[in-house]
Structures are given as C-alpha cells and as structure tokens.
Design brief:
Length: 72
C-alpha cells in the first residue's frame, strides 16, 4: 500500500470548535460520573435509574457528534 501526505488531505476530518469540544467533554465527564455511581451502589433501583440517565447522556453525545459531522 502506498500512502502520501496529500492522500491524508482527502480524508473527511472535522475539527470541532472549542465550544463544541468543551460541550462534548462535559457530557463525557457526566457519563463517566454516572457510570462510577452505578458501580458503587448495590441498590438495583438506583442502578436502573442511573442506567436510564446514562442512556440519555449517550443520546445527547451522539446528537452533538452528528451535528459536528453534519450527519443530523
């Protein structure tokens, strides 16, 4: 396989703005925090509630990424 620097320029790489990056980082930090809470509790109802909350955060992350890449 032969690969040149000019070939890289053809790749559709999108660089998020600082505000987009910070927003995604905040959502990811929130997801990590929720996941840590899920693993630290023995209450099954709390685990279920946190799982639902985690799914909502994941949907929001997906939405923001789709917007950044122009998929939405």
């Amino acid at each position: 396989m032969h690969f040149e620097l000019n070939d890289v320029r053809l790749l559709p790489i999108t660089i998020p703005t600082d505000s987009q990056r910070k927003e995604i980082e905040g959502l990811v930090d929130s997801a990590i925090s929720i996941q840590k809470k899920r693993y630290s509790t023995n209450d099954e109802d709390e685990k279920c509630r946190l799982w639902q909350k985690l799914q909502e955060v994941q949907k929001e992350i997906n939405k923001r990424i789709e917007e950044i890449y122009g998929i939405a």
